[in-house]
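Hi,

I'm pasting everything inline rather than attaching a file, because the server keeps stripping attachments. The sequence lines come first, and each chain or strand is labelled.
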Amino acid sequence: GAGVSQSPSNKVTEKGKDVELRCDPISGHTALYWYRQSLGQGLEFLIYFQGNSAPDKSGLPSDRFSAERTGGSVSTLTIQRTQQEDSAVYLCASSLLGQGPRNTIYFGEGSWLTVV
Amino acid sequence: SQQGEEDPQALSIQEGENATMNCSYKTSINNLQWYRQNSGRGLVHLILIRSNEREKHSGRLRVTLDTSKKSSSLLITASRAADTASYFCATVFDMDTGRRALTFGSGTRLQVQP
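And the predicted assembly:
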């Protein structure tokens, strides 16, 4: 597609439920990132996929969070047993080759998650 | 804690004035990038400065980098109301942790009054 696409745009869920957030990166981009941004705060790194390499999961805040990337394209971020502190905007981004100085990262519009 | 920390957290100026935002970071970097975010949604890449560069210009944007002080500044000249947004610096650091992903600061919220 023309840009990074995320769905849903907004999600309200009850505490304890599982949620799945989807990211469709720019076609051909090998690197994909997930970030979380709480209201009025900076971005918190969650996970990074680069090609066929093992993903960098070091930013996932707990074992309730997991992500996968199928076929090197679409990624799904899953949050199990959601808690109120999970409420945030979840931003996905992609880039062509990863972290080299020429590789601009393009962000989606984010998925706003509210846990009630 | 955040790798990049922006200063000030909030800035309010009049149209036509210059806006300067600063960013400090902690570890060795490959490059430093500045992003803009409108209304809490997606970020837009503004400019990238490499660790061996000291200054870079793009339109009304001027970025400086001082690796000895581990700091960067973003200057927006002749600001416009449309520049109202949050601005984040981001760094790539893989020297200490091996992490190869952008790490963002908390951002500076810029308000340009018409």
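The CA atoms of residues 32 and 49 of chain A lie 5 Å apart.

If the labels don't parse on your end, tell me and I'll reformat.
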